[in-house]
Amino acid sequence: MKNYKLIFTGPPGAGKTTAISVISDTPVITTEAKTSIRDSHHPDKDSITVGLDYGSIKLSKEEKIHLYGTPGQERFDFMWKIIKEGGLGLILLIDNARSEPLEELRFFLKAFEDLIQSTKVVVGITRVDISDTPKITDYQQILATFNLNPPVFEIDARRKEDVSLLVQALLYSLDPSLKDSHKS
Amino acid sequence: MENHKKPISIVVFGINKQTRSILELIFRGPCKGSYILIEDIQVAQACIFDIDNIDGLKLWKKYRIHYPLPTLILSLEKQDVAGTLYVKKPIEIDALIKGLDKIKQLVETPKRIHNISTPSQAPKDAKLAIEIAMEREEESLHQFCGVHDDINPANPSELKHVYYDPSQYMQGFCEKAIDVSIQTKNKGILLEGLYTPMLLRYQKNQMFCDCSFTKKSTDLLRTMTLLPVSKSALRMTFLNDREIENYVALNQLEAQAFDNFFWQLSLWTSHGRIPKGIDLNKVVVLPKWPNFTRLIVTPYALKISALWMENPHSLLDTAKVLDIPQRYVFAFFSAAYANRLIFLDRRIKQHKLPKGVVERRIKRSTTKPNPHRGLLQRLLGRLHRR
Ligand SMILES: Nc1nc2c(ncn2[C@@H]2O[C@H](COP(=O)(O)OP(=O)(O)O)[C@@H](O)[C@H]2O)c(=O)[nH]1
Ligand SMILES: [Mg+2]
Questions:
Q1: Is residue B55 exposed (0-12), middle (13-18) or buried (19+ Cβ within 10 Å)?
Q2: Most B-contacting residue of A64, A175, A179 (CB-CB within 10 A), to test interface
Q3: What is the value of ipTM here, to two decimals?
Q4: Structural domain containing residue B44
Q5: Do B379 and A59 touch (CB under 8 A)?
Q6: Which helix (H) or strand (E) holds B200?
Q7: Can you give the CATH number for the domain in which A120 is found?
């Protein structure tokens, strides 16, 4: 069996687990990795749990796409390195309702620079229903400073059509010659 | 007595919900399913027109020029319009049935040539919901992209079929309002002279109109977009915040996203064609990916965008390179163009490039496969299917 990965990343609460679950064939498994790193927000706890999401899409007996959702917090970036190995492309989700979404965009673009350079990225902006600023054009401006001009869609991670469209845009960005299944 | 014939498809104008329900009841009951209400005037065989409605007469004149269908006019007062039938309001069932009988005769002995295909909505009892859903999708696809075959650009008579003039339609009026909004930085503009008034707040990407997409009045809206406007009747009025508030409250209107609305409107109007004056050989520049999750995604729109983002092509070459029908390229282009997401590169004309360059480009953009193409293709197929 050949295995390929699509990687979903973004800050906590951006909708990674949700997005994976709406397109995965299998129920999403969230690995509760224990860590002894002290959490400044919860100094009383010795260990906290991080969520590494896993789902999959089976294409045939021989082929499977693994869907990985990275743990959101920065201090688990050692895990990102392992996860992103061999990724086909990156789906970056940003929560528009958090206090500094544009900063978060910058942060994740830097953290995943090598994967983005060697493959492609798409950006899904979530929770636009809760906060309608910043605007797509604000995100596009930041992306331009990284020399990137990828698809940036407003999505609701709970909507399958939205997530599917975002992934389709990633696939077409990777190869615009892919055949469309529309009848003509 | 059972009715074995295909029902006659009838489109209605200016008819309110109650009257509509009454018509549906009469069609099914006393008329034994001989008639059926449909939304799409392009495939309708006959029309029922309530002329007493706001702007009824004005709308009627425009309608008549473009759609010489057998027509039954409803009105409180006697209407003597050549070539039409008249039924007095309030509607008496017998009079209506008599009128419909005559309509039926007109439809069944057609005097004019018409190559209308059988309406896709003709009801068959055994149809599955999924089939109906697919037919609906197919039908709306036709509404957005048309059904025209590819044209040969060297043939002037074919060439003229790809063009339409947005200024003849509501689209042009909206575009004018956008220009004015941008120039004057105005808060809100009330557009009048259309079938129903519309309030535009361009800076906020909002519009207010009492026939929204969310309600079931898309048919009315679509009709409105397809009927040529009478330019002398069109009016724009600037409103301040206070006036906007009052207007919205008074008419109990809800805001809709304008870009979304205008995208759909321009697809309907374009119908797989492009605005007049657009050069088929000039390179199309798409600076950013459209926000597709909030727009109608016509066939191949993602693929076309991916190509243009990577390697701009002219409209004709796009269809050639991607090996897709021209109408899908034209429909997507027209919607993006009306929404100012796209422009033509003034400098480069592809047909002026040295011979062989276009061919090389085409080759380049089709022979640079991703090493995982097969896999990506299968994943795409899976995503399309759900
Ligand atoms: N209102 C709203 N909620 C969303 C949206 N997208 C995701 N959510 C919700 O946000 C919450 C966090 O999502 P989750 O997938 O756990 O985020 P994760 O931390 O990135 O895995 C869930 O309750 C989702 O249902 C959106 O666009 N709007
Ligand atoms: Mg999660």
A1: middle
A2: A175
A3: 0.88
A4: 8-122
A5: yes
A6: strand B198-201
A7: 3.40.50.300
Residues of chain B with pLDDT under 50: 1-3, 111-126, 214-216, 351-352, 367
Note whether B283 and B231 are same-domain residues.
yes
CB B281 within 8 A of CB B349: yes
Query: Best of A158, A160, A162, A166 to mutate for ligand 1, by most ligand atoms within 8 A of CB?
Result: A158
A38 CA: distance to closest CA in chain B (Å): 40
CB contact under 8 A, A178 and B377: yes
Whether B69 and B172 map to the same domain: the answer is: no
The whole-number average pLDDT for the span A71-81 is: 66
Ligand 1 atom at minimum distance from A53 CA = 21
pLDDT per position as a tens digit, B49-86 = 888 776 677 777 777 777 778 889 888 877 777 678 88
Peptide bond into B90 cis (omega under 30): yes
Residue B370 confidence (pLDDT): 80
Long-range contacts of B81-89 (CB under 8 A, 24+ apart): B89/B50, B89/B52
CA of B53 from ligand 2 middle (Å) equals 55
Tell me which residues have their CB within 5 A of the ion that is ligand 2: A 17, 51
Distance from the B36 Cα atom to the nearest Cα atom in chain A, whole angstroms: 29
Own/partner contacts of B355-360, CB < 8 Å, gap of 24 or more, are B358/B317
CB pair distance less than 8 Å for A153 and B365: no
Cβ-nearest to A136 among B291, B380, B383:
B291
CATH of the domain at B60: 3.40.50.2300
Which of A150, A56, A23, A93 has the alpha carbon at shortest distance from B384?
Answer: A23
Residue keyed to tokens 């492309």: A89
Residue ranges making up the domain that contains A111: 2-178
User: Residues of A numbered 164-183 whose beta carbons fall under 8 angstroms of chain B's beta carbons: which are they?
Assistant: 164-169, 171-182
pTM: predicted TM-score of the whole model, two decimal places: 0.73
